[in-house]
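INFO  loader      accepted 1 record
INFO  loader      residues=157
INFO  predictor   begin
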Amino acid sequence: MRISVSSDMDEAVARALVSELRGRGHDVVTHGALRPGDDPQWAVCSEAAARDVADGISEQAVVCCWTGTGASIAANKVPGVRAALCADAYTADGARRWNDANVLALSLRVTSEPLLKEILDAWFGAEAGRDAEDRRNVEHLTTLDTARTAARPRPRP
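INFO  predictor   done
INFO  writer      dumping tokens
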């Protein structure tokens, strides 16, 4: 699977994330502080990773910043992205299963390497659920994205 990864800081957890994903056999595309010369601002690099998912370049993404909150917010501004900030394996499993999340957001501050592995195990071990109510909720999110995109003001010529 191709996975885009962004981080606003070149931290040990971000490097461990890239290494762990590659060790699991994933093709990793890096953004931000993980790619020399790239813009490391959390809003910019998180958007870049999320756009990879929305544009079909990557199947999923993992976005990181100090708390994970800013990375999650930036990723969720990209239509078609459902980013979930996960601080534990249970939340990661639920985000994939109930929300069909396609972008994982992580905190560089509180995510240890053992916890990172647990979160990744849960994230990749879960699939989008087939429950009708969950599917309707995810479809509603798509409707919200469509409405938001249609409502964007057009630039003046």
